[in-house]
Amino acid sequence: MISFFRKNSFVLLLLAVFVVADALIAIWDPLVTSRRFYKNDFTKTLYHHQWQDRGSAFYGNSAVTGAFIEQESRSGLVEMGLSLGKLTDLKAIMEQELYHFEGPLVIGIDVHTMIDSLETDNTYQWLKPWYQPYVYAYRDYFRDTGTEVACQLTQGLLKLDASRFEACAKFPETLKLSSTDPFAYQPRWIDKELYFGQKSDQELRKKWHDYDQRFGWMSQHDSKENLEALDWILRYAKEHQLPLRVVWMPWNTRYALPDYMPGLQEDVNRRLAAYNVPVLDLLQRYESKYFHDLVHLSRHEGAPVFTKEVDAWLLSLEKPSR
Question: Could you tell me the CATH number of the domain that includes residue 65?
Answer without folding.
Answer: 3.40.50.1110
